[in-house]
Description:
Elements: E1 2-5, E2 9-19, E3 22-29, E4 32-39, E5 51-55, H1 64-80, E6 96-99, E7 108-111, E8 117-118, E9 123-132, E10 135-141, E11 150-151, E12 154-156, H2 163-175, E13 178-190, E14 195-205, E15 214-221, H3 233-245, E16 253-257
Parallel strand pairs: 1-5, 9-14, 13-16
Antiparallel strand pairs: 1-2, 2-3, 3-4, 4-5, 6-7, 7-8, 9-10, 9-12, 10-11, 10-15, 13-14
The site of zinc ion has 8 residues, from loops.
Amino acid sequence: MTIVWRAGIHLPILCAIPVGAATYGVASRNDVAGVAELVDAPDSKSGFFTEVGVRFPLPAPPSQDAFHHEFLLKLWRAGRKENSLVNFCSDCGASVVRKIPHGDTRHRWVCASCEIVHYQNPKIVVGCIPERDGKILLCRRAIEPRTGFWTAPAGFLEVGESIAEGAARETLEEACAEVEIGHLFASVDVVYAGQVHLFFTATLLGDFAAGEESLEVALFDIADIPWKDIAFSSNRFALEQYIADAGSNNGVHHLVIKHRSPTSPVPI
Ligand SMILES: [Zn+2]
């Protein structure tokens, strides 16, 4: 798919973002970048379009730089709240378009050739709070986001494993530590990030060391937990609930984080 941008320049489209009733395409190549409303080509026969014309209901930006750095990025980030970028169909390699499939109610990425719908759903993050002799094992992150901050071992669930298996695997990867997983005690909906974070209690078995994604790994007394340097809000919530439970199983504590606070330094 291509879009015609401004003075008839043909550019590959990087993403399409629904805004109200219209869909806008973001295009960029070398020093040229822009946003334009996408409209079906008049000769489209399949219902999809391989080339689109554009019109400009948006006010002209004050300058190319301002357009690129402020307006485009703002629109791009607004679109990413709900939709990650999909460039090509993973089944056939053709371009995808943003549209509401027949019988659906939401915009989806749809292949312009084979018409497969590429659904995007929240991801599951699994972790645990390993404890031994009243001390909690934490990892200091060696990777973004939040490099240098402390976190309980946690990461994305893989296909083919249970959430408990995923939590144990993440602990082995990040802290080189084996754990006996206990009960699920915390669930955090990170709505704006499209993630659900799940935390188990766990008993630390044997030794530990910094894995590939950790700068260091350490056991903390409850009184010494570095609260100011905890990487994520979901981790902070899990640690708080874990300490409040004091070893009892009080079911699953649930937190919903709908929006990222603009003043918070903690991203998740
Ligand atoms: Zn396809």
